[in-house]
Protein backbone atom coordinates (compact mmCIF):
# COMPACT_ATOMS: atom_id res chain seq x y z
CA UNK A 1 0.00 0.00 0.00
CA UNK A 2 2.88 2.36 0.78
CA UNK A 3 4.31 1.90 -2.74
CA UNK A 4 0.93 2.73 -4.26
CA UNK A 5 0.52 5.95 -2.24
CA UNK A 6 4.12 6.95 -3.05
CA UNK A 7 3.46 6.36 -6.76
CA UNK A 8 0.17 8.27 -6.60
CA UNK A 9 1.85 11.14 -4.75
CA UNK A 10 4.66 11.28 -7.30
CA UNK A 11 2.20 11.26 -10.21
CA UNK A 12 0.16 14.05 -8.61
CA UNK A 13 3.30 16.11 -8.03
CA UNK A 14 4.45 15.61 -11.65
CA UNK A 15 1.01 16.55 -12.97
CA UNK A 16 0.85 19.68 -10.78
CA UNK A 17 4.30 20.88 -11.87
CA UNK A 18 3.50 20.18 -15.53
CA UNK A 19 0.22 22.07 -15.27
CA UNK A 20 1.94 25.04 -13.61
CA UNK A 21 4.59 25.16 -16.36
CA UNK A 22 1.91 24.95 -19.06
CA UNK A 23 -0.14 27.76 -17.49
CA UNK A 24 2.90 30.06 -17.19
CA UNK A 25 3.84 29.43 -20.84
CA UNK A 26 0.23 29.98 -21.98
CA UNK A 27 -0.28 33.14 -19.92
CA UNK A 28 3.04 34.87 -20.59
CA UNK A 29 4.96 33.31 -23.49
CA UNK A 30 2.92 31.59 -26.23
CA UNK A 31 -0.49 30.20 -27.18
CA UNK A 32 -2.05 28.22 -30.05
CA UNK A 33 -4.47 29.83 -32.51
CA UNK A 34 -6.66 28.50 -35.35
CA UNK A 35 -6.99 30.47 -38.60
CA UNK A 36 -10.64 31.22 -39.37
CA UNK A 37 -11.53 32.57 -42.80
CA UNK A 38 -9.70 33.45 -46.01
CA UNK A 39 -8.34 36.92 -45.19
CA UNK A 40 -4.69 35.78 -45.01
CA UNK A 41 -4.60 33.55 -48.09
CA UNK A 42 -2.32 32.49 -49.69
CA UNK A 43 -0.04 32.76 -46.62
CA UNK A 44 -2.46 31.17 -44.14
CA UNK A 45 -5.54 29.10 -44.90
CA UNK A 46 -8.73 28.41 -42.97
CA UNK A 47 -8.24 25.72 -40.31
CA UNK A 48 -4.46 25.95 -40.05
CA UNK A 49 -2.97 25.97 -36.54
CA UNK A 50 -0.50 28.64 -35.42
CA UNK A 51 1.86 29.12 -32.50
CA UNK A 52 1.71 32.73 -31.32
CA UNK A 53 4.31 34.30 -29.01
CA UNK A 54 3.26 37.04 -26.57
CA UNK A 55 6.69 38.62 -25.88
CA UNK A 56 7.33 40.80 -28.96
CA UNK A 57 4.30 43.11 -28.57
CA UNK A 58 5.19 43.76 -24.93
CA UNK A 59 8.72 44.91 -25.77
CA UNK A 60 8.01 46.91 -28.96
CA UNK A 61 9.65 44.28 -31.16
CA UNK A 62 7.06 44.30 -33.95
CA UNK A 63 8.09 45.25 -37.48
CA UNK A 64 6.58 45.67 -40.94
CA UNK A 65 5.64 42.28 -42.36
CA UNK A 66 5.00 40.57 -39.01
CA UNK A 67 1.78 38.55 -38.81
CA UNK A 68 -0.09 39.31 -35.59
CA UNK A 69 -3.13 38.12 -33.65
CA UNK A 70 -5.36 40.83 -32.16
CA UNK A 71 -8.84 41.79 -31.02
CA UNK A 72 -10.43 44.30 -33.41
CA UNK A 73 -11.62 47.59 -31.94
CA UNK A 74 -14.86 47.19 -30.04
CA UNK A 75 -14.76 43.38 -29.91
CA UNK A 76 -12.71 41.50 -27.31
CA UNK A 77 -14.33 38.13 -28.03
CA UNK A 78 -12.82 37.41 -31.46
CA UNK A 79 -9.25 37.11 -32.69
CA UNK A 80 -8.12 38.41 -36.07
CA UNK A 81 -4.91 37.51 -37.86
CA UNK A 82 -3.38 40.17 -40.15
CA UNK A 83 -0.02 41.51 -41.30
CA UNK A 84 1.59 44.73 -40.07
CA UNK A 85 2.01 47.11 -43.01
CA UNK A 86 2.34 50.48 -41.25
CA UNK A 87 4.38 51.29 -38.16
CA UNK A 88 3.77 53.80 -35.35
CA UNK A 89 4.21 57.41 -36.47
CA UNK A 90 4.26 56.65 -40.22
CA UNK A 91 1.95 57.93 -42.93
CA UNK A 92 0.55 55.70 -45.67
CA UNK A 93 -1.39 56.19 -48.85
CA UNK A 94 -3.26 53.56 -50.89
CA UNK A 95 -3.29 54.41 -54.60
CA UNK A 96 -3.58 52.30 -57.77
CA UNK A 97 -3.70 49.00 -55.88
CA UNK A 98 -0.48 49.71 -53.95
CA UNK A 99 0.43 50.89 -50.46
CA UNK A 100 2.83 53.83 -50.32
CA UNK A 101 4.93 54.81 -47.33
CA UNK A 102 4.78 58.55 -46.76
CA UNK A 103 2.72 58.76 -49.93
CA UNK A 104 5.70 58.21 -52.25
CA UNK A 105 7.63 54.95 -51.66
CA UNK A 106 5.90 51.66 -52.53
CA UNK A 107 5.96 49.09 -49.74
CA UNK A 108 7.39 45.77 -50.92
CA UNK A 109 4.81 43.02 -50.34
CA UNK A 110 6.22 39.76 -51.77
CA UNK A 111 3.66 37.68 -49.83
CA UNK A 112 0.74 38.96 -51.96
CA UNK A 113 -0.57 37.24 -55.09
CA UNK A 114 0.70 39.09 -58.18
CA UNK A 115 -2.79 40.19 -59.19
CA UNK A 116 -3.82 41.33 -55.67
CA UNK A 117 -5.19 44.87 -55.62
CA UNK A 118 -5.19 46.88 -52.41
CA UNK A 119 -8.24 49.09 -52.52
CA UNK A 120 -8.75 51.75 -49.93
CA UNK A 121 -8.96 55.43 -49.21
CA UNK A 122 -7.46 56.52 -52.53
CA UNK A 123 -5.29 59.64 -52.32
CA UNK A 124 -6.02 60.04 -48.61
CA UNK A 125 -2.90 60.22 -46.42
CA UNK A 126 -3.31 57.90 -43.43
CA UNK A 127 -1.49 58.96 -40.26
CA UNK A 128 -0.67 56.18 -37.81
CA UNK A 129 -0.55 57.28 -34.15
CA UNK A 130 2.64 56.56 -32.18
CA UNK A 131 0.90 53.79 -30.23
CA UNK A 132 -0.72 52.01 -33.20
CA UNK A 133 -0.09 49.89 -36.31
CA UNK A 134 -1.78 49.64 -39.71
CA UNK A 135 -2.70 46.00 -40.43
CA UNK A 136 -3.94 44.40 -43.65
CA UNK A 137 -4.90 40.87 -44.64
CA UNK A 138 -2.93 39.24 -47.46
CA UNK A 139 -6.18 38.50 -49.30
CA UNK A 140 -7.15 42.16 -49.50
CA UNK A 141 -10.56 41.66 -51.14
CA UNK A 142 -11.65 39.29 -48.33
CA UNK A 143 -10.20 41.13 -45.34
CA UNK A 144 -11.72 43.31 -42.63
CA UNK A 145 -8.66 45.27 -41.56
CA UNK A 146 -7.32 48.78 -40.87
CA UNK A 147 -8.98 50.04 -44.06
CA UNK A 148 -12.26 49.51 -42.18
CA UNK A 149 -11.44 50.08 -38.50
CA UNK A 150 -8.41 52.36 -38.84
CA UNK A 151 -5.00 52.05 -37.21
CA UNK A 152 -4.88 49.32 -34.57
CA UNK A 153 -3.89 50.32 -31.04
CA UNK A 154 -0.79 48.45 -29.88
CA UNK A 155 -2.50 47.23 -26.72
CA UNK A 156 -5.02 45.24 -28.81
CA UNK A 157 -2.27 42.99 -30.19
CA UNK A 158 -2.08 39.68 -28.34
CA UNK A 159 0.93 38.21 -30.07
CA UNK A 160 3.08 37.62 -33.14
CA UNK A 161 2.76 34.44 -35.19
CA UNK A 162 5.90 32.32 -34.75
CA UNK A 163 4.97 29.17 -36.63
CA UNK A 164 2.32 27.22 -38.46
CA UNK A 165 2.34 23.73 -36.91
CA UNK A 166 -0.72 22.17 -38.57
CA UNK A 167 -1.09 20.70 -41.06
CA UNK A 168 2.24 19.11 -40.29
CA UNK A 169 3.15 18.93 -44.00
CA UNK A 170 3.01 22.75 -44.17
CA UNK A 171 4.92 23.47 -40.94
CA UNK A 172 6.57 26.89 -41.30
CA UNK A 173 8.46 29.24 -39.01
CA UNK A 174 7.85 32.96 -39.49
CA UNK A 175 10.67 35.43 -38.83
Task: Report on this structure.
- By secondary structure, the chain is α+β, with helices and mostly antiparallel strands.
- The protein contains 3 helices and 12 strands.
- Strands 1, 2, 3, 4, 9, 10, 11 and 12 form an 8-stranded antiparallel beta sheet that branches.
- It is elongated and about 80 Å long.
- The mean pLDDT is 87.
Features:
175 residues, alpha+beta, Umud Fragment, subunit A, eight-stranded antiparallel β-sheet, four-stranded antiparallel β-sheet, elongated
Share of residues in strands? 25-35%
CATH superfamily grouping? Umud Fragment, subunit A
From N to C, what is the helix and strand string?
A: HEEHEEEEEEEHEEE
**Domains, number:** 1
Q: At CATH's second level, what is the architecture?
A: Ribbon
Helices and strands: which structural class? alpha+beta
CATH class: Mainly Beta
Chain oligomer state: single chain
Number of strands: 12
Distance between the termini: 54 Å
Shape: elongated
